[in-house]
Each structure stands twice: as C-alpha cells, then as structure tokens.
Design goal:
This protein has 322 residues and is an alpha/beta fold. Helices cover 36% and strands 18% of the residues. Strands 1-2-5-7-8-9-10-11 form an 8-stranded parallel beta barrel. Strands 4-3-6 form a 3-stranded mixed beta sheet, with no helix packed on it.
C-alpha cells in the first residue's frame, strides 16, 4: 500500500541559493530541510562585458559564496544535509546585468567561447570531483544559443569528458523552443517566469483563474516534451510580492507590495505542474542563507519568499503528496 504522504510528491523540490558575501551559519540548511526542500542550486557567477572577450570568475573581489572556496563549502554542507545539488553557473553582464540580450561580435565569438568554456569546464570539474548531481552549462543566454548552436554542442561534448552527472541548460521562458541542442542534454531546463495570462485579454482575479491561465503554456511545454523526449525542470521559478505578480516580474516591479498575489502565483504553478509526468520539479528563486529584516522585504528584493505567505505555500507543496 502506498504511503499517501509521499504519493505524487514533487521529485525536485528545489531552491536557488543566493551566494552569500561571507560564510554563513549552517543552521539555514535545517530550515530548508524543514521546509521540505530536497534539492538546491548553487550559483557561481561569472562576469562578461560587451566588446570584451573575457569571462571573469573566482575573482578575489567576488563574494565568498561565488568563489571556489564558498561554492565547495556550500556543496559540502548541502550534501551533509542529504540535499542534492545543481551547480548552475550564471553570467552577469557588466552594464546590463541580465545576459538574455548579450551578443558577441562575430569576429570575436571564437575567443569569447574559449573563455566561456574555461569558466564552465572549471565548474564542471568541481561538480564531478564533489559528486554533484546535475550541472547547467549556461543560463538565459538566449541570443548566443540561437546564433551559435555548434559552439554549445562542442561545449557539451567537452563537459561530458570531465563530468559524469546529468547535464541541463537553463533557458529563458521565451527561448526554449528555439534551442537546437536539447538532444545532447539529459533534461530541458527552463527559467519559468511565464507571464500570465498568455492571452492579455483574459482577466485574472483568483486562484482558479490563475490556474486556468496556465493552460496555453502547459500545452506548449507538453508539445516540447513530446518533440525532444526529455523531462522538463524549472531551473528557476518564482514571483515578486507585488500586485499581479503572475503578470511577469518585469511588468510589476513598480507595483504595490502584495504577499497574497505572490502566494497565489506560487500555489497555482505548483498545483498545475505537480501532476504532469513530464515535469520533474523546480528550483524556486531564491533563498537567502540569512534572516531577512522585515523592512527589506519589498525595498531590497521583492523575490524574497522567506517569512511571507509564499513560504507556507512552498512548504505545503514540498512536504505533502496530493
């Protein structure tokens, strides 16, 4: 007889960890375990700049949690708490931040990818040496993955030679259907900041309407799964504590503070996807390894779910089977 508490439980019940500026108290892993978290994403940032062919990483001026020493220690502590790890390098683009619109001039692309390969292979070797469960070869580089697919296939081949675990790429929500190398990976990774509703004429007002508004996106993702025959993981998902947070964070960042809408958006997403066989789970964005002062909830980073209604929703889904 199946245990009803584990039946239909989300397989990957993850959070993205914010790399801290300095060593953190391991007690925060106790809070994650109590929340039902089973997986964590560790995020070592690298830095690039338009017009420059270099990718800078593990620099002395970076935060402790972004450098090798902090990355290794965080992975060690996660494993000590029986949490599986996704090592997920991110690029930060000087002057822009988000890497989605980052482009490299054609006459510089080979040199840039040589440097990017060095960055990714460095962390692939760390991932292999520490028995990390999954490794991401990139994050939201939506223009570079479309323009230079052969460079990515070459990178995947190189990573396979140094890392024995599962490979994924973390695609932006508006870019996953344009990627031609899903066959070379073990999972489809999507940063699932889908704006709801897809049809802008639709009005959302409550939990059921938000759930229903997922239908067009669910159909698209199901088609992708059938086409590439790979399970789908949300390498990031999350919502701001803002009015209408489910509309897309870039559209609501100036809206009023609203914990209820953030919680509704979390609840709707997890309620919809937990029953889909092709969806393996996801990693909420994002978890700070420190206590968050109440006055920072909205002012500093509205994606924070700690201490808000959304944390209770996350715990509900991560600790129970339906």
């Amino acid at each position: 007889m199946k245990d009803s508490s584990t039946e239909n439980k989300i397989k990957i019940r993850g959070v993205n960890l914010v790399a801290p500026p300095e060593p953190f108290d391991p007690v925060y892993f106790d809070s994650l375990v109590e929340m039902g978290v089973s997986h964590v994403a560790v995020v070592p940032f690298g830095f690039s700049r338009k017009g420059v062919q270099k990718v800078v990483f593990n620099h002395e001026r970076q935060w402790w949690g972004e450098k090798d020493k902090g990355v290794i220690k965080t992975i060690e502590l996660a494993h000590q708490n029986d949490l599986e790890v996704l090592l997920k390098p991110h690029l930060w683009i000087f002057g822009d931040g988000w890497p989605g619109d980052f482009i490299v001039e054609k006459d510089s692309i080979d040199q840039w990818f040589t440097d990017y390969n060095h960055y990714i292979l460095h962390y692939a070797e760390i991932a292999d040496s520490m028995n990390v469960d999954m490794f991401s070869i990139g994050n939201e580089l939506r223009k570079l993955v479309v323009s230079y697919p052969e460079h990515w296939k070459d990178l995947i081949e190189k990573v396979r030679k140094v890392y024995k675990g599962k490979l994924i790429y973390s695609a932006n929500w508006d870019n996953y259907s344009q990627i031609s190398f899903w066959d070379e990976l073990d999972f489809v990774g999507i940063n699932a900041y889908f704006p709801l509703p897809k049809n802008k004429a639709e009005e959302l007002s409550d939990f059921e309407s938000i759930k229903s508004s997922w239908t067009p996106w669910v159909e698209d993702l199901k088609e992708l799964n059938l086409r590439v025959n790979k399970p789908i993981i949300f390498t990031e998902y999350g919502y701001m504590s803002k009015d209408g947070s489910y509309n897309g964070h870039w559209q609501v960042s100036d809206s009023a503070y609203n914990e209820e809408d953030q919680a509704l958006a979390y609840d709707a997403l997890l309620s919809v996807f937990r029953s889909k066989e092709w969806w393996v789970g996801g990693y909420s964005w994002k978890y700070f390894m420190k206590s968050i002062p109440r006055e920072e909830y909205d002012r500093r980073d509205a994606f924070i779910f700690q201490g808000k209604k959304a944390e209770k929703i996350l715990k509900k889904h991560y600790t129970t089977g339906y």
